[in-house]
TrEMBL record:
Name this protein carries in UniProt: Amidinotransferase
Pfam families xref list: DDAH_eukar
GO molecular function, one term: transferase activity
Keywords: Transferase
Originating organism: Kitasatospora aureofaciens (Streptomyces aureofaciens)
Superkingdom to which the source organism belongs: Bacteria
NCBIfam families for the chain: DiMArgaseDdahMtb
Amino acid sequence: MTDTTRPGASERPPVRTASPRRFLMCRPSHFGVSYSINPWMHPEKPVDGERALAQWTRLRDLYRELGHTVEEIDPLPGLPDMVFAANGATVIDGKVLGARFRHAERTAEGPAYLSWFRDQGYSELLWPEHINEGEGDYLLVGRRLLAGTGFRTDPRSHAEAQEFFGVPVTGLTLVNPEFYHLDTALAVLSDDEVMYYPAAFTPGSRAVLRELFPDAILATDEDAAVFGLNALSDGRHVLLPESATHLIGELRRHGFEPIGVDLTELLKAGGSVKCCTLELRGH
Ligand code: ARG
């Protein structure tokens, strides 16, 4: 039997279609690196605020050019990491699971994001019992929620998310502190495809990923080191750090349209494309 889903040397990759998305982003007006809660953050090294804003603006405009809707939440002073909107909540079927941060430096972001949703008229909101850092650790693939743990999100949050959303949750354990959130080690490409960096996971979690996604694109050490997996796909276009050249080639081979972006100023805080983007599903 020939496997037509896997593009071989002679086979054509599948035709990809984009679906319009709704995103929430937070302008990096107060962005900076004044503390260190992950190995990428070096407060002694300078950050160019203007450059960060220009890079972020380019990403937001790209989404709009691709036909997506981008909403913005007002950035708050004293919360330099608030630009990483992915961490602000998890939204599925219009239901909003609030974020409860691991580090004191970011705890005020949880209520700030949750009240944005309340103000927008979202009615099914849950202030969580357990620590979870939103879409940093929760990634929806089709109707399955992949759930990271190991550094930030408490594994007890996984059951809380499953009960709240009513979708199956699959836990995955991260082991490398440089890839402290699931969205730094794995990216969702379509309803049943992902790309990931195996070395970021425990052997058991790697086996689960192989079982669920036998044909997944695997990132090299070089891809991972430039945050290539911190990517956002609309089903056709995949926005990712432009220096992830191997992944860009692989995505093209699989029929996607990779779009390289420069978010190197934001990388100084340990974030890139996906971290800046929270998907608003159903509402
Ligand atoms: N400095 C932030 C932190 O360590 C970066 C968050 C990146 N966000 C993400 N979704 N991975 O919490």
